[in-house]
Amino acid sequence: MTSKLIVNSLRHTGASADAITMDASGNVTFPGNATCSGTPSGFGGITMADIWRVTAQFNSNAGYTYLTSNWERADTGNSGQIGTGMTESSGVFTYPSTGVYLVQYGAWGNTNSSSAHTVGINIQSTVDNGSNYTFVAGRYFSIPNISTYNYGGGTCQHIFDVTDVSTHKSRMVTYSSSSVTWEASTSGNNVYVSFIRLGDT
Amino acid sequence: MDRNGRPNHIEDYLITVRTGQWFSWSNTKNKIYANLIVLDGGSKPTESEVTTGLSTLQTAWDLEHDSYRSKRRKAYDTLPNQLDLLWHAIDADSDLKVKFSAFYNSIKAVKDANPKP
Fold first, then answer.
1. Which residue has the higher pLDDT, A136 or B66?
2. How many CB atoms lie within 10 A of CB A135?
3. A56 and B23 Cβ atoms separated by less than 8 Å
4. Which of A14, A143, B36, B67 is exposed most, by the fewest CB atoms within 10 A?
């Protein structure tokens, strides 16, 4: 026999306020703190986290380089992943489900006995499946000539509202005003992008 | 390259051949010449070219890091500190203040306008 308790609120015998309240629409509110000893699910925690990197070094010189090749999911250093990850094709990243995503892109490089006055990384996104890309985040810096090898790098972030996974995609770009070697690697995240689903769209 | 910047892998030579992502590896965990793939339709350097190219880079790096220029570059104080030393040397000599008045007075004007507390 099924039992059903029909109440509007629950309260500890010694408390002066409700611990749980329920409205007619089925919404449940915990006015105080809530502790869960088991594994919670469906409470809006992070359901997707994924990180990718470029596996081979490359050189850019006086222009943009769209990172169309050599992407791999990070697989060293006990790398973790939550949920269904991203898919990548020719440097274009497709999201596994709609939602609001934090996209974090980072890269560093070096110059050989020279300076590079304008060096940058950009995240570009499209909402029409690649017909048009928009610059959405960037980080620019200079690499001064202070040694035989001079290093510089940066990160940039974008929070992307992905309302349609077939049209909303992202790609990564580097820029340098003169010759820069980007230190991409298959053993560490040197030129990388991470995606974390923050919540529903 | 290693942590000092010394080329130590054929990839360090390959990036000098062409710009952009023109090459890849069929096994990213085993970056040897046999696994080198060309992506841009250009020519693939021979194994000899690659090994010789890396060796040339290493020789150049070793020469540079053993040179007096490299040793001096590492030992010099920063440019602002060197200029400060120069200014104070002039400041201590009345003749030099006249000889290098443009340099001396332009810096002195900034110091006078922003005195130490």
1. A136
2. 11
3. yes
4. A14
Burial class from Cβ neighbours inside 10 Å (0-12, 13-18, 19+) for residue A21 reads middle
Q: What pLDDT is attached to residue A31?
A: 86
**Is residue A61 less than 8 Å (CB to CB) from chain B?**
yes
**Token digits of residue A140:** 């620019």
Which chain A residue shows the shortest CA-CA distance from B76?
A: A146
Nearest to A191 by CA among A47, A65, A18: A65
Q: What is the pLDDT of residue A1?
A: 66
Packing angle between helix B68-75 and helix B47-65, nearest 10 degrees?
A: 60
* CA distance linking residue A10 with residue A51, whole number of Å: 43
Per residue in A164-179, pLDDT (tens digit) is 999 999 999 999 999 9
Question: What is the pTM assigned to this prediction?
Answer: 0.75
Round to whole Å and give the CA distance between A183 and A60. Answer: 11
- Give B68→chain A minimum CA distance, Å: 13
pLDDT at A130: 96
ipTM for the whole complex: 0.70
Rounded CA separation A193/A73 (Å): 10
Q: Tell me the shortest Cα–Cα distance from A145 to chain B, in angstroms.
A: 11
What value does the mean pLDDT take over residues A66-82? 96
Residues of A whose CB is below 8 A from B16: 59
Which chain A residues contact residue B56 at CB under 8 A? none
